[in-house]
Amino acid sequence: MALPQLLSLIELLPEFRELQEGVPGAGGRCVVGGLHGSSDAVLIAGLAGVLHGRFFVVVSDDIADSERWLADLTTLVEPEAVAFYPPRESFGEAEAHAEIAGERVETLERIGRGDLRIVVTTSRALLERTQLPRALASARLEIRKGDTRRLEELASHLESIGFERVPMVEDVAQFSVRGGIFDIYSFGMAEPVRLEFWGDEISELRHFDLLTQRSTRGAELALVLPVDGQITAGDAEPERSSIRALFPPDTLLVVPQGTHLRPEMERTWAEAQHHIDLARRRGEDTPSRDELFEAPEVTLRAIAGFGAIDLSGEQASIDFPFLPPEEIGRDMKRLKQVVADGIPTVILCDNAGQAERLDELLNDDRVSPASLAIGVLDGGFVVPPRGDNFYGYRVLTDHEIFRRERRFRRARRYTTGTALESLTALKPGDYVVHLEHGVGIYRGIEKMFVRESTVEVAVIEYEAGDRLNVPLYRIDQIERYRSADDITSDTAPPRLHSLGGKRWASQRDKTRAAIQEMTVELLDLYARRKVATRPAHVPDTVWQRQLESSFLFEDTPDQRTATTDVKAIWSGHGQWIASLSVTSAMVRPRSLCARHSRRCNPGVRWWFWSRRPFLPTSTRGRSATGWRTFRSTSRPSADFSRPKSRPRFSPT
User: Fold this and answer.
1) How many Å apart are CA 436 and CA 28, to the nearest integer?
2) pLDDT tens, 516-568?
3) How far apart are CA 101 and CA 82, in angstroms?
4) Positive or negative CA dihedral for 124, 127, 130, 132?
5) pLDDT band with cut points at 50, 70 and 90 for residue 386
6) Could you tell me where the DSSP H helices lie in 373-502?
7) Buried b / exposed e across 337-371, counting CB within 10 Å, b at 16+?
8) Is 429 a residue whose pLDDT tops 50?
9) Most exposed: 126, 177, 209, 269, by fewest CB within 10 Å?
10) Angle, helix 132-139 to helix 98-113, in steps of 10 degrees
């Protein structure tokens, strides 16, 4: 692998050994220069690998540079060893953005457990004072199957650390109680968990899906973390402190090139007072600036007690020999000349598809000495040769070669329930459909006493005033009623079904039969497509691959998958059913259009028909055979019109 090789390479440099032996202790400072591209991240990752007992904090001026550091370090070291502590979006205490609030509390919790080696943050985040560092130890909970807890005490604790009690959990920092079933969705959880109590004992602990509210799989541990700014401890609020309260005494502070801590902290200090004054003029009860932020002088004095590695390069005591990489400018001939100069070269690619294209471009006429690896760094660099035993090293990145912007993709930490599929989207009087009983009228949520507990149920009224009580944990069986036309005062309401009647069962059986009929037709259609033959399109040429690699922006994973699937179809190796939906109207990947622009009519579209399996309320827009056409917005050419056997109808 090339990336561990980068760390091994930098450890061979005498400048690295000098820095390792003279790493600054408490209050010390070392200025390092000669760094280019992402060599600064490689340096810190290498130090973290050899200094096992030290904790690193990288402090940047802005979030963009912090995310660059986070992305580079995540590529170079184990992702579990690096975390980001972002600043709050606003200058108030509560963080409205769940992703930011969750990342903050999860990073603090991992620092307290000692799981992290490197924390990336900003100078503003260092100034912020929060309840979390002091309250985290007493507020966090670890819940396991078999634990003994009183349900009322657990609910009271969750409310005291900022959780909202709701009828049904749909978002993070919420919990619900339905008899002996206790649902929790906390920061630190990939999925919400469901606790089932038998008396005071937790008999079952399982994850569940927010959309369907159904249990999915067993869980071994439920970690519950508090909500910042909403923690209460009786009559007194927890003491606020900075993230520095969790840093060990031997912390190494890393100040990247271009970072100016004092000016940025002073600007944040002044801007915070301005926003607090504006909030108070609007009548908001806002804590003072001294409660929410530390004064810059206090923070600067405190971090001066840590060892610091300054990467600015100004009056450097250790100067590394790194050089910026050569400019390629999308010129493949220039790239081949550069990698053939005798210096070992590795080219980092964002994905396997890009690596394959570059491999074909570099080896089209002769074998290239450059090696390719999957991994992304922000910028390349060159280590020049030294003596007879060190031949140097060159690191290039595909986005620099093709002059593309690098994208930072971070997956969402938390999911939310879909409003249209939840009870909160319904109001009393709405028409709903129950899976087993048909169309009824939603009458709201009520509480029922079952044995010795209280259960919340959704009430549905049916024909003749019959009422059905649906427990909220079976809410996945209810769906809002939908029809071809909106229900208004001028239209007739849908006819209600009766509990225990046969009409709903009959309609459902007819629908199942129609779906089975449609399935048989689709299977026949795709079977005939699979055995049909046609001339395959020519495979990609060098020009095609170079064109695809030169686009300014990287393809998303979905775009790469779509392009690969459509290429497989065009080459005769793919299956329509695996790649395209029958309701799709148009497929035109940009790279394929570029290649076939001179041969393909710009009006080419794929046309599909879908049989409607449900029982329609009208025949508007449908033919006698029940086929409906899906069309693209652009007008197709005459040469590619639909088969004459299918009559043309406008889409509804």
Assistant:
1) 72
2) 999 999 999 988 887 877 777 777 777 777 777 666 666 777 888 888 888 88
3) 17
4) positive
5) confident
6) 398-401
7) ebbeeebbbbbbbbeebbbebbbebbeeeeebebe
8) yes
9) 209
10) 70
Rg, the chain, Cα only: 31
| pLDDT of amino acid 234 | 59
**Closest to 302 measured CA to CA, from 379, 241, 359:** 241
Contact 583, 630 (CB under 8 A): yes
Tokens, residue 377: 């760094």
Helix (H) or strand (E) holding 441: strand 438-450
Mean per-residue pLDDT over the chain, rounded: 79
pLDDT on residue 614: 33
pLDDT digits (tens, 9 = 90+) for 79-101: 889 999 999 888 877 777 788 88
CB atoms closer than 10 angstroms to residue 35: 21
Say how far apart CA 133 and CA 113 lie, in whole Å. Answer: 12
Is 517 in a helix, a strand, or coil?
helix
Q: How many residues does the chain have?
A: 652
Instruction: Measure the CA angle with vertex 156, ends 154 and 159; round to 5°.
Output: 110
Give the pLDDT score at 454: 67
> Which residues, in sequence order, are CB contacts of 390 under 8 Å at separation 6+?
12
Give dist(CA 35, CA 42) in Å, integer.
Answer: 10
pLDDT, one tens digit per residue, over 188-231 is: 888 899 999 998 999 999 999 887 788 888 999 999 999 887 78
What are the φ/ψ torsions at residue 106 (nearest 5 degrees)? -65, -40
Q: How far apart are CA 219 and CA 193, in angstroms?
A: 8
Quote the DSSP letter at residue 384: -
Where in 532-626 does DSSP place strands (E)? 608-611
Across 168-200, b (16+ Cβ under 10 Å) vs e yields bbbebbbbbbbbbbbbbbbbbbeebbbbbbeee
Q: pLDDT-based confidence at 359, cuts 50/70/90? A: confident
Pairing between strand 393-397 and 345-349? parallel
Is residue 289 helix, strand or coil? helix
Higher confidence at residue 84 or residue 484?
A: 84
Residue 388 backbone zone (phi > 0: left; psi -120 to 50: alpha; other: beta): alpha
Is the predicted pLDDT of residue 252 greater than 90, yes or no? Answer: yes
Reading across the β-sheet that carries 438-450, which strands appear in turn? 467-471, 453-461, 438-450, 431-434, 478-480
Quick check: 405 and 552 in contact, CB under 8 A?
A: yes
Burial of 101 from C-beta contacts in 10 A (0-12 / 13-18 / 19+)? buried
Q: Retrieve residue 593's tokens.
A: 């259009």
**Conformational region of residue 503, where left means phi above 0, alpha means psi within -120 to 50, and beta covers everything else:** alpha
Q: Write down all domains in the chain, each with its CATH number in brackets.
A: 2-134+240-319 (3.40.50.11180), 141-224 (3.30.2060.10), 332-401 (no CATH), 419-501 (2.40.10.170), 506-640 (no CATH)
- 463 burial class (0-12, 13-18, 19+ CB within 10 angstroms)? middle
Structure tokens at 125: 């985040």
What digits encode the pLDDT tens for the residues 138-153? 888 999 999 999 999 9
Residue 383 backbone dihedrals phi, psi, to 5 degrees: -105, 110
Q: Is the dihedral of CA 32, 38, 43, 44 positive or negative?
A: positive
Q: Give the C-alpha separation, 185 to 413, whole Å.
A: 12
d(CA 470, CA 477): 9
Q: Looking at this protein, which amino acid is placed at residue 639? A: D
